[in-house]
Each structure stands twice: as C-alpha cells, then as structure tokens.
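pasting for the record
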Amino acid sequence: MAFPEPATAVEPSSALPVLPLLQLNEVDPLYLFGCYTKWELEEEPSAGWELLAAAQSGHIDTRSHARALLAKSRHFGACAPARVAESAEKTRPTLPEVVMNVPYDIEVPDSCAGCYRTGPGFFCGLSDEARAALNSCGHKSVLSAGTILFIEGQVPRGVFIVCSGKVNLSTTSREGKVITLKTAAAGEALGLSAAISNVGYETTAETATPCQLNFVERKDILELFELQREVSVKVAHCLSRHFQSAYRDIHQLVLNRSSSGKLARLLLSQSVGDEGSEEIRVHSSMTHEEMAQRIGASRETVTRLIINLRRKKLIRADRAGIVIRDRTALEALAV
C-alpha cells in the first residue's frame, strides 16, 4: 500500500491567504436546517432566534443558508430573503408569554413591614415601629442550599434572621466528626448569643434548603437594643428559648444510651400528623448520613437501625420518605 508523500514546506510568499475574521462565524448548514425544523414543527422560540442570528452572520454562506430557510418559514409568510435581515432587526416573532419565577420560588417582600410570613414566636414579630427600625438596618438575600452562613469559632459579624427555609446548626470534633445539633426554621435568629457577647459563633450554620435571610450587623443590632426596648425584650425571650432547647438536646443526646433510642426520638421529633391516626409521616428528607450526624452515630449504624425498625414494623418507607406505623412502640423505644 502506497503512503502519500509528506507535504513539503510552503514558502511564506506562497502560503494561503488568512481568512477574514468574519468568516470564522460559519455555522453548519445541517444545524441551521435542524433549527428550522424545530421552529416549524415544535414552535421552539430559541431555534427561531438561532436562525435570525445566523441571517446576520458575517459569513456569506451561513447568511445565505439562514435567509433561504427563513424565507420558506411560515412564521414570515411571503417575506423575501432580502427582507429577512431587515425584519429581524425591526421586529421579533411573537413569543408565548412566560411567567418569570423568583429565585428558588421564594417571594421576597420589599420590606419587613409588608412581610406576610411573620407568625407567633418569630424574632421579627415586633411592633410596626420596631420592625421598621429592623428593616432599615437589615440586608436581605436569597441563598441556595449548602451555603455556609458562619463557621464555628468565627468572630461574629452579626445576626442572621431566617425569613424562610431551614438552616442546619452543627459542631465538629477535633477528629472531624460532625454532629448536627439543630435545624433552625423560619422566624429564628442565628448568632444572637455570639453577637451580644462578641465571642466566636458556637456552631456552624449551613442552609439545608433555599432560604431567604435578613442579616443585621453586630453594631446595628446593639444600637437597636439601646433605641428599641421591645427588641431587647425579644432578644431575651429568644435566648431563653435557645437555652431550653439546648438543655433538651443535651438530655436526648447524652442520657439516651442506645443509638436506637436516639434515632427513635429523632424520628418522633420530625413527625407531623394527628396523634390519633394509625400512621404518621416523618416530615423530613434527611439522608442516613444526616440522621447519623444528628444522633452522633455512623451512617452504617443508622442504616442498620432503620432496617431493624422496618422489620419490627415500627416504620415503613415509601417514595415520599419514612412513615411511623406504631407511634406507641417507637415512643417506648425512645425513653
């Protein structure tokens, strides 16, 4: 089999001319035809815009192919190829009205005064005057799940008020073992104790779901204490509830000797429904790893315990999560 001879070097004077920069915009004709078909058959607006962009390309062949296809499009009727570019610049095809969603489907109120989420026990459940003062110094934001708000031991920058969503509060041992202490819900203020005492944050806060947060800097929250007596009283109530919650968590984590008892108590704490009903759904999407972090065990231990509870018919699992089948027996296990 004969192989082609190697190409000889070309003198610079006889080299091929460099193509103009505009010709680098060439688009495959098959791709343009595919866009034309998708626009005609499926009414895909993005495909139509691809053709319109190609009709104004600097590459002659691409421009010709695109204009020829647009001239045959039923969207342009009897429009001549020469008029396609002009019509593309002056008018756009009518597109179906699209309802734009806010990020993560979270509606962000313009101010705290007009917020409809405030409920009993919310940190921002204040009078109109105090809420206006809080709104003036707050910085609202919407964050995705997995965002770190602050880290254990970090110098406190301020207070994070959870407007919507859930935030996990965790601590880490020197060996790197992570324990999730609590999941904060809407209405709670995170970092209050650290901001007041100017000592490092006690835990690490990470958003468990998309959240809307209102961040108030430390100097601003301290000024509110002096100017708004109502805010000071609200902070005292919040710190008292945090203390009581921490005491209950320590009791559950330390005094429950068995991992099965800790897991049973965790499932009961996350359950919602009528106590008189036969089955109660666990209102949580925690993974086995997250459950392990909550009870101070390994993921393998949690998986084994879940299997044992299912065998004893205390719980069952479906696509939506875990369902408690025998609440009385589970409560006996959690003691």
